[in-house]
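User: Can you recover a sequence for this backbone? Please restate the input before giving your answer.

Assistant: Of course. Working from this structure:
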């Protein structure tokens, strides 16, 4: 099989380890850097792994899909997970326990007239490295954030009291991996990621992760869940093709998924909204 990686970082630990598994099994693996000038691509690979969310990477993936290529994850599903407004609409419409989300064209425009009766979480509408994710408990914090992010399109979610730990859940196909990490909203900020055995997850959470993948049309993805004080799960983010670092078995799972998708029918269907 011929597998291609759409990424500027083929040495990423997950990709490098999966590549080694594939090469050891006799398959060809090549990397396409979406940030570099693209030469004519020639014959299609059997499958492309889209490990980048930049405009260039999405454009490259869309072009390959138009030629009939299989891309994991599809470009449309990857783009959907970058828009937190569309993400929330899709999740809530499907009945997933997702944080209720309001959208505002600019932080300053919203904050000018906002009156907080309870803490909220404010995030950049468009997910990207270094984006805004912050908790605001009152007017002073809102003013501080508005000065730093005046024109930023934002989404606002009510803060759900929880333990202060994020459940970091990842899936590669049907295989689910789990870890715990201090929430970036906690007073001390993020700490190290701690592995979590699947058996330690509350009942039904692994199936909730898989259902989320079906709703968003994803094969490789992350689902961030907080546990409310009543024990119920609340999804606060969905990520297309996250790093999944330090999870035993993840590289082999990715290699196996790539081969399954390479051998299967070529389809790029994303479930309708």
């Amino acid at each position: 099989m011929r597998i291609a990686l759409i990424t500027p970082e083929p040495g990423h630990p997950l990709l490098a380890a999966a590549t080694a598994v594939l090469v050891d099994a006799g398959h060809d693996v090549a990397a396409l850097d979406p940030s570099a000038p693209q030469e004519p691509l020639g014959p299609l690979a059997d499958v492309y792994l889209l490990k980048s969310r930049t405009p260039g990477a999405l454009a490259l993936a869309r072009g390959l899909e138009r030629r009939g290529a299989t891309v994991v994850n599809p470009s449309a599903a990857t783009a959907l997970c970058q828009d937190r407004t569309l993400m929330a609409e899709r999740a809530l419409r499907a009945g997933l326990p997702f944080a209720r989300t309001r959208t505002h064209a600019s932080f300053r425009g919203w904050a000018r007239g906002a009156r907080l009766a309870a803490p909220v979480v404010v995030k950049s509408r468009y997910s990207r490295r270094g984006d805004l994710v912050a908790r605001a408990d009152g007017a002073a914090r809102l003013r501080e954030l508005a000065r730093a992010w005046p024109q930023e399109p934002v989404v606002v979610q009510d803060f759900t009291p929880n333990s202060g730990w994020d459940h970091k859940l990842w899936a590669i196909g049907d295989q689910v991996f789990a870890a715990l990490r201090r929430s970036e909203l906690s007073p001390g900020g993020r700490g190290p990621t701690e592995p979590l055995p699947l058996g330690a997850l509350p009942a039904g959470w692994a199936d909730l992760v898989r259902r989320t993948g079906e709703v968003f049309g994803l094969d490789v993805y992350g689902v961030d869940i907080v546990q409310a004080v009543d024990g119920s799960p609340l999804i606060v983010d969905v990520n297309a093709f996250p790093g999944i670092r330090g999870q035993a078995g993840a590289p082999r799972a990715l290699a196996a998924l790539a081969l399954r998708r390479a051998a299967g029918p070529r389809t790029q269907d994303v479930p309708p909204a």
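That completes the design. The longest helix spans residues 250-263.
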